[in-house]
Amino acid sequence: MRRGLLFLLLAAAQAAHAFTEAQTRAVASHGPWPPAFKADPSNRVSGNRQAIDLGERLFFERRLSANGAFPCSRCHLPERNWTDGEARARGLALTDRNTPSLANVRLQRWFGWGGAHDSLWSQGIRPILDAKEMGSSAAQVAKLMREDPDLACRHRKVFGTPSPDDEQLLVDVAKALAAFQETLVSGRTAFDEFRDALVKGDKAGIAKYPESAKRGLGIFLGKGSCSTCHVGPAFTNGEFHDTGIPFFIERGRVDPGRHEGIKKLLSSKFNLLGPYNDDEKHATATGTRHVLLEHRNFGEFRTPSLRNLALTAPYMHNGRLATLRDVVNHYSTISPDRLHSDGEAILKPLKLSQQETQDLLAFLESLQDGGGNYRRKAFAGDCGRDAAFSRPQ
Fold first, then answer.
1. What is the DSSP letter of 230?
2. 3 to 8, 14, 15, 293, 317: CA distances (angstroms)
3. Checking CA distances to 84, which of 19, 25, 48, 314 falls within 20 to 30 Å?
């Protein structure tokens, strides 16, 4: 009798973790990983080996900042999945927002928490010029690129004869930085192995994935409705949503999020509708051409990727939530009264049990590749003798 009861309990437990055909299709939609490289038409040096090399050097170059102390890598640390571990980024001064990861950044179509930029190279210009971050200017950047023999040599190899226009040189620097950042792709994870095994019907591969992660994946696809916003191989729809996090900063200041981002996007001379887009047909500017400013955009922020999420604490646009468990608890207990009345009716309190919370965390942690897939090379100073190039794997 006991053996029969034990068999039934085990069978029921196994059945609880089985995925239906529809769920299998949903799981399959989050891959394959990694995605194939696709060059950015708006950036003529996208995918160019020498541009990547120049961009990598510039990423760690302190002299791009006003005081010669703050390179891009000050806030985007490789060992922290290209974030800084701080609630809000600090350059020359404390900023209002959390540092977003640069891992898989080339897959985005809007850049920054508010989407104020429509290309990776345009986004790269903002921190260089921002008074709170690097505080530099087009003139200072152009001076560096003209007067440093090694950087000037490498610039000529990538872009040809340098323009006498300081702003054009600033854009060149941003495009080289973007070429480097396009190579920052996170590695495969336990989830990716499970996903591929599930698609192939590989029972041995499916069995290797922890049962708690399988249950968490079921919550992610079902009760949690997390895949409504966290879709596709990168686990993000790349759009903007109200997350129920207060957008007040301090002293009565607020962060308008996407509302302000659209205003900045449309007024920027560096957007894809402007003169620096290398795509002559401006086919890449369709989204920018048709984006609309609406009141509901106030307080909406970009949906981040969930890949390597465990490495990027603290969370949300302002670093308000310290741990991944805090994030899950936030969505488990969120009050509809905290959401915009004219916004999307997507979020509702999930009311997860302790076991469900633990299972969902197990799934989210299975999206981590372990980090450490980037190795910074030792830069040679002789432009005529390039250092061996090693792209992050």
1. S
2. 9, 16, 18, 64, 53
3. 48
pLDDT tens string 236-284: 999 999 888 888 887 779 999 999 999 999 999 999 999 999 998 889 9
Domain that holds residue 273: 14-34+189-365
- Residues 114 and 377: their CA atoms lie apart, in Å, by 33
For residue 9, being part of any structural domain is answered with no
Burial (CB < 10 A; 0-12, 13-18, 19+), residue 44, is middle
Q: Give Cα 373 distance to the centre of its chain.
A: 16
Dist CA 84 CA 258 (whole Å)? 23
Residue 267 lies in a domain: yes
Number of Cβ atoms within 10 Å of the Cβ of 189: 18
Tens-place pLDDT, residues 175-196:
999 999 999 999 999 999 999 9
Query: Distance between CA atoms of 296 and 343, rounded to whole angstroms?
Result: 5
Tell whether 326 and 197 lie within a shared domain. Answer: yes
Name the phi and psi angles at 241, rounded to 5: -145, 155
Number of domains making up the chain: 2
- Cβ atoms within 10 A of the Cβ of 53, count? 24
Q: Is 73 exposed, middle or buried (CB count within 10 Å of its CB: 0-12, 13-18, 19+)?
A: middle
**81 and 141 together in one domain:** yes
Query: Within a domain: residue 252?
Result: yes
Does the predicted TM-score (pTM) go above 0.85?
A: yes
